[in-house]
Amino acid sequence: MPDKEQINKEKEEFIALLRQSEREDEQDVDYLLEDLEEWGFFKAPASRSKHNCFEGGLVHHSLNVCKMALLIREQVLAERPDLESLLPRSSVIVASLLHDVCKSNIYQRVVRKQKNEVGIWESYETYNIDYTALPLGHGEKSVIMLLRSGFELTEDEILAIRWHMAAWDLSLHSQEMVGSLNKASEKSPLVSLIQAADQMAANLMERKMM
Ligand SMILES: [Fe+2]
Ligand SMILES: [Fe+2]
Known about the structure:
9% strand; mainly alpha; 52% helix; binds fe (ii) ion
């Protein structure tokens, strides 16, 4: 679990990368940073129990997704230089750093008790999940939060953030949803790139192995 110094360092790293997002209005980043602070983004965990379940875990995860996404971009462009205009570095940074802002306001720290190995109750800190604030889903909630903050997003960035979970949070009974996901992947290579980076960060870099 990172200490305060490490948490602050990663927050600074996140901000420095976000400032490379090349928005038309540079102030977009300043306003968004204020909102991220207000939403609790910099203190939130990335999950309650699966990966990065600690203060600052969401920033740590977002940075991992960004690093992975930039690496994948390099490899893809080495093979497919024709995709360069469809995978601008700034869009890879924006979509990866901001894909999970929907998680900023759903975790609350609570203290619970559990028995230790000799049967004595001990307190431990964990998180409750509460979807009351803006209950809109996942990727779509991130997009809406960012747009409401006045942050400019390209269509590819919107698609990549919206569909970063691929089919994991999707009702496969909905033809419209499945059709939209497939079309988004066909239209924008950024969608597949962010999906892959998110999976690799969460499942390979962050999850405890059994
Ligand atoms: Fe997510
Ligand atoms: Fe994620």
